[in-house]
Amino acid sequence: MNRRLKRAALFFCLALIVAACAKAAYTGRSQLLLISEGQETQLGLQAAQDVLKTEKKSSDQIQTERVKRVGQRIAAAANKPEYKWEFHLIEKDTVNAFCLPGGKVFVYTGILELATSNDELAAIMGHEIAHALVRHGGERMSMALMAQLGGQAASIALGAGTSNPAVAQAFSQAYGMGAQVGFLLPHSRAQESEADEVGMILAAQAGYEPSGALSLWRKMDAYSSKKGQTPPAFLSTHPPSKERIKDIQAKMGAIRTRYYQQALLN
Ligand SMILES: [Zn+2]
Hints:
By secondary structure, the chain is mainly alpha-helical. 61% of the residues lie in helices and 8% in strands. The strands form two sheets. The chain has a three-stranded mixed β-sheet with strand order 3-5-4. The relative contact order is 0.14. The chain binds zinc ion.
């Protein structure tokens, strides 16, 4: 390739990357997204079917209804009509919960041992839903595509369908599907902190007291530091550190005033 052609190719790649730069919902943070929300949603729907094939739904009607009710209130606050929301309670004694792109939410019975109040359940569901709304999975997929394909990633991924093997591979890399369904790979610290903040906003808008996040993460912290116990995968991807608790505490007052008190008036 001669120099002019190389320069043109580089310019083309840069233009695509600029086109792929978006602002995160709620926080306005810049993010690199090489796939569309529609592609992400389609992959999320397929993955949700796999989860439902593998896992057993809880037969506890009361807890199942509770998860649905809290979820629907958060979904109403999220105001995302293009999502086809579903809330499933999975019968498994493990601390886990996640939301796939497109609005398929899975809560495991094991996490209800910690999220005993509805405010705490709203905190965990708000956090997981926030990851999907702010498209953290899409960001991780984009990073995986960049690592896999380098400079070609943008041009390939932007025009690719979900059946493109590179896109499918990036999805399983980002979501850890396949090897162990439902154990998402760790988010970055920035994404975790963003999901805590946006999750608290969503829960507060839905009428749940934002201090639920504080008591939940304190319980998670106590749970993960219990001696002689291997912490569940969820806690290794969601480290309940003292910094996290401090960060939640610092954000709580403003969220309560701005969103929770407002929700109480509605
Ligand atoms: Zn998270």
